[in-house]
Amino acid sequence: MLLKTTMLTNTYHGWGALDSLPQLVEPFHVKTILLIIDPFLKNNDLFEKLMLLLAPYEVVIFDQITTEPTLEQAESLVKFAKNSNCDLVVGLGGGSVLDVAKLVAVLVTHEGNVVEYLNLSGHKKLKDKGIPKIIIPTTSGTGSEVTNISVLSLEGSKDVVSHDYLLADIAILDPKLTVTVPPKVTAATGIDALTHAIESYLSVNSNPITEGLALHAIFLITRSLSDVVFNGSNKAARIDLSYGSYLAGLSFFNAGVGGVHALAYPLGGQYGISHGESNALLLPYVLNYIRSSCIDKLRDIYVAMGFEIGSNDNEQVSKWCIKAIEDLITDIGIPNTLQAFDIPESGLVKLAEDAIKQTRLLARSPMELSFEDILNIYQNAWKGM
């Protein structure tokens, strides 16, 4: 059987890697740069440093991206980009900013509206890669710097634009940029990365390359996440978490994610819960529900987390694995029930109705999930059982 694994983004990485930005921009021979940045970054030293690094160029700034970017925001930004006459996009921030930056860089050379290119409802195809894009994450979580997808919130759920044209020309992975990320954001984005690694390892599309990436990502993330949440200046842990997120991104870009993400999307779309918290909340419940379909792989995940299994059988170890993941999520302070996010029991059917539409994601689950299965998982997550 012929398999394909894609790693097309040139990544420059290491502590202080951002300093290389001027020499990375120069070969593109640009005049005007569109800088898409998280709004809160405009008021700190990182922004000032970035502007010094880009001093030779005209820089147009857009800083109005929310944590769960909407279709309307994307439409507005594409129009803004077309009017700015930019010839390079630099995205600096968390996954939401990076997703939108990639999308804008492509669609700035396309006709029509963003909605026409969406995966579930669009009918237009991307014709070229647009203008160059340099993507710089400031959190360790989404893996957006190495993936070909942009996620947007719609009314009730989410949809994506997905194509290799969205891959960054250059990614700069600098763990130093993550040091000031608040504990709550570090926790949510870290579990997001862990979910990417776990779901890609369990994916029906996994292969030995993606599995190797995923297991090492699990190792790096689980050994560093608690330390980083409670001591954000821990350099070694910040480095581990950054690389773990990156490797998880490479793995899920190729193998895909599954049921956790399918059920998480409606939580963000309907209730505004951050993507990382949505994944963290649902991860143990989905794993417990599909456990019988991936017992052996859960054993591998448990070992990658640093635990000894001794002579215990895989059935028992798979349960320990899910419990260890649940304990980690609790330890870093993320609530573990839908009720904790003020979601009413009456809203579960609507959540399931939107989740079942995520066929692209559900197709990768090692266990086929029906509407009734999805509703059962939401009910378990609501009750906390």
TrEMBL record:
Domain Alcohol dehydrogenase iron-type/glycerol dehydrogenase GldA per the UniProt entry, residue ranges: 10-175
Superkingdom classification of source: Bacteria
Record-linked Pfam families: ADH_Fe_C (PF25137), Fe-ADH (PF00465)
Keyword set, alphabetical order: NAD, Oxidoreductase
Cross-referenced InterPro entries: ADH_Fe/GldA (IPR001670), ADH_Fe_C (IPR056798), ADH_Fe_CS (IPR018211), Alcohol_dehydrogenase_Fe (IPR039697)
Signal peptide coordinates: none
Domain Fe-containing alcohol dehydrogenase-like C-terminal: 186-382
Keyword ATP-binding applies: no
Keyword Hydrolase: no
Cofactors (names): Fe cation
Family of the protein in this entry: Belongs to the iron-containing alcohol dehydrogenase family.
Protein name per UniProt: Iron-containing alcohol dehydrogenase
Organism: Ignatzschineria rhizosphaerae
